[in-house]
Design a protein that fits this description.
Elements (H helix, E strand, L loop, with lengths): L2 E11 L2 E11 L3 E5 L6 H9 L6 E6 L2 E5 L4 E2 L7 E4 L11 H6 L12 H13 L15 H13 L5 E5 L7 H18 L3 E5 L2 H7 L2 E6 L2 E7 L15 H10 L6
Parallel strand pairs: 3-9, 3-10, 7-8, 8-9
Antiparallel strand pairs: 1-2, 1-4, 4-5, 5-6, 10-11
Length: about 260
């Protein structure tokens, strides 16, 4: 299990350029990408998933090369075996919970799933404890339940990695506590590496096994959170700004 990312891309929007130049590797279960809005975190996840083009670099997931500009490798997004949960969950409002989960297995000729895929949907409904809502529509269930539907849909195809873009941002504080615990459980059940974007230091404290700090399109630090005192990949003490975030995440004043 491992993730290697080395990507470079320049974007132009509204007459301004933004350069993404990200390099990191990790083999932890849950890696947190942390940084201010506009730092490039969401763009990075889209590049890894193949939803956004990149100019140069290399992306390797569990030893499988998804992108390598030097070798001319660029696997289409639908074949990358990546589960992606967007910030708003991107559920189809006209489909039921069960239909949303099974959508990627539907044939263009029929809405009905073959029995193997239908059984997989039933299994996920049980795992995520949303079986009782399988016939309801997204507008008829809670935010936490919609998140579970989105996660179940992302895991339907048994992906090699799960990408989460601020999945807790729309949830109230008490529900966030519950969903953090559920995310740990999900990782354990499916044994899948997770890249997790957040702005919440508490997510870093409770979920992160590795912290990757992203600032203005660059990695400004990478820290193993499973082994305090925190040191970088070279074994050097972390820089003051990283320590400040970690202390804040732990609820300790850095003053």
């Amino acid at each position: 299990m491992g993730v290697e990312v080395d990507v470079q891309q320049t974007f132009r929007s509204g007459g301004h350029d933004f350069s993404l130049n990200i390099q990191f590797s990790c083999d932890e279960n849950i890696t947190v990408l942390f940084g201010q809005s506009g730092a490039g975190k969401s763009l990075l996840l889209k590049i890894i998933a193949g939803l956004q083009d990149t100019q140069t670099g290399k992306i390797v997931i569990n030893g499988r090369v998804l992108f390598d500009s030097s070798e001319g490798i660029n696997i289409p997004s639908r074949y990358r075996r990546i589960g992606f949960l967007f910030q708003d969950y991107a559920l189809f409002p006209h489909m039921t919970v069960g239909e949303n989960i099974g959508f990627s297995k539907r044939s263009i000729f029929s809405k009905r799933l073959i029995e193997k895929d239908a059984e997989r949907v039933r299994e996920l409904l049980e795992i995520f404890q949303i079986k009782d809502f399988s016939k309801k529509y997204p507008s008829e269930i809670s935010g936490g339940q919609r998140q579970r539907v989105g996660l179940a849909r992302a895991l339907l195809q048994k992906p090699d990695i799960l990408l989460l873009d601020e999945p807790f941002s729309a949830l109230d504080p008490l529900l966030r506590i519950q969903m953090r615990a559920e995310l740990k459980k999900i990782q354990s059940i499916f044994n899948i590496p997770i890249l997790f974007i957040t702005h919440d230091p508490q997510d870093v404290a409770e979920l992160g096994e590795r912290l990757v700090l992203i600032k203005q399109g660059l990695v400004s630090g990478s820290v193993d959170l499973s082994n305090p005192p925190y040191r970088d990949s070279l074994g050097k003490p972390v820089r003051p700004e990283i320590r400040k975030i970690l202390l804040s995440a732990a609820g300790v004043s850095s003053a």
